[in-house]
Structure of Ribosomal protein L1:
Amino acid sequence: MVSSGEALTTKVTTGSPYRLDSSQVLRASSALLRHMNLQQQQKEERSEKKTLIGDNSDATDAEDIPIINEPVWLVLTTKRHIVDKNRLKPGKISVPHSLNTSPSLSVCLITADPQRAIKDAVSDPSFPSSLSSRITKIIGYSKLKARYQSFESRRQLLSEHDVFLADDRIIMRLVQTLGKIFYQSSKRPIPVRIADIERVDGKRIKRDQKKKSTNDNSPAAFASPQTVGKEIERTLGCIPVQLAPATTASIRVGAINLTPQQLSENVETVVNGMVEKFITKGWRNIKAIYIKGPSTTAVPVWLANELWLEKTDVLENDAEESKGSKRSRESKKRKSASDKAKPLGRDKNFKRPRVLEEEGEEAAIIDSRKEKLRKQKARALEDTESSK
């Protein structure tokens, strides 16, 4: 997708290096979409039956219509794990180009009890009609917990709807209720705020903790139909963000039916939102940013020059060298000590030599050998003289 002579990432010439280069994001988006379209064309040529799946309402020409509306993922790696519980809660980031623009979109809304209040709000004349036609199911938390206990019922619910929205007051309780069938898929519930918020002079009033503890069993208060409609429309125009306590996060930022310019704008918006709200220490904690398709390699968008987060994480050269030399000396001492302590004859094929216990005995043997040699030489000389 990128020639070998071109640089994968570019450094900014002015300003802070901890920001995206718009030209690099656009290049990566163009290369990725071009490669994904080429892959789909090859699949279409190999397949016998051509089918159109997905939302292709934005395509104008028949040749530009993709076979499958494949998603584009943003892969973001950090230098340290994300362990803050507030940042690990499900969230959302508003993007300029929504992924839920299809008029035939099926939305399931999960609310706090009672569900009748939200059903009345959706059926109210002041509620947007274009939005009410797409909300095909409204279910309260208690009924969801009672009706969908088996895996088969949850699978059926997952397949019947395209998007799942959940009241932000019960979003954390849905993890155990819906289980891995939902949370291992790309249809995890997106939090939406539909509660009635009391404001004074434009400022939100927090509920008293004592009242909250005493009124846990009281029915939840919902906002007006107009407010609920605006919040749902705004949520459908957002991208869900659900992080894990790890160093890698994958977020769906687009699809193959977007143009390179639209995809690059979504990528920049999501990265800025992640830095401001979800990533601890912001840009300093980001290691690399990539974009990829379901079956493509990751295209680099931004790479950090420093692999450490704080300067205290880096050892000084002198201290590191002294520690290394000290470590090498200690290893040599241990090796020499182990060599001395190693007994002889441990190998089965090794023949242990005869060890003399006393030096005097060894000297006597050497002298006897020398005397024997002298006698042999003298005898040899006598034999030569007699022969002459």
